[in-house]
Design goal:
- The protein is an alpha/beta fold.
- It folds into two domains: 205 residues, Spore Coat Polysaccharide Biosynthesis Protein SpsA, Chain A (Alpha-Beta Complex); 53 residues, no CATH class.
- Helices cover 25% and strands 22% of the residues.
- The strands form two sheets. Strands 5, 6, 7, 8, 10, 11, 12 and 13 form an eight-stranded mixed β-sheet that branches. Strands 3-2-1-4-9 form a five-stranded mixed β-sheet, sandwiched between helices.
- Strand 1, helix 1 and strand 2 form a beta-alpha-beta unit.
Amino acid sequence: MDKLGLGIVAFDDTLHLKNIITEIRDLCDVVTVCLQNVSYHGDPIDDKIIVEIEKLKEEKLVDKIIWFEASNEYDASLPETPRAIETDKRNYILDSLQDDGCTYAIVIDSDEFYDHDDFKKAKDIVFNDPNVSISYCQYINYYRDYNHVMVWPFLCYVPFITDIKYRFDFKNGSFDKPSDPTRRYKIEDSGVKFCIFNWDVVKMHHLSWIRKNAEDKVKNWSAKKYFDKIEGLYEDILDRYYNYKDGQNAIIMFNVPNYEVVVNRLPAQYIHPKYNLLDL
């Protein structure tokens, strides 16, 4: 009997977790949240995050809390080191889910939301098609609320449900489309092909820039060392975020011209998380 494990990378912001898990809890056999005592940049975890995750476990939304400790083999001075550590954390989660008997897994961050019906439709495809062992989907990036989205100059992809035996490889991942290098699966068998779901089947709703505290996003992102030498960037990001007006671009840490991305207002709100963020 196939079992699906949901693994969640968490550290600095659990604002969306209750909504994310509630939406697809009935479709996942095991839900595991992975924490760590210090961030990729050496900052200690906030005790309130631990309390919030433990509460989710008491509410049966989370089955298991695991703790990740980074290897000391990495050179902390290199900008790619936090990203390499993040890849290890994702694989650590996969190891745990495999130990718990899961045959398939999806590893997400704590700000990645999937619509229930879309998720079920795509899950059924993966589980019932023997030719699908590794899947990816596209995602949409929200900015400040559920009605504004950032328009990337290219399509971005994220791993979806995949056979539990595969692992991510930061340096040698096999996925060749625009994606986070910390979650590119390494494929040794040339006969294995990626299943890429169309936009209208399933997509990830990335709530990364819907935050009460945007400083945490800027401070703890694993790729921030690539942008440390850009004077005034962090201040500009936060000033634009907190004082944003319709028609302005978002300012973010990303390799786009002037670090700006167009923001569009959606004609309607497409996702409706169960809980009001202010009530969590």
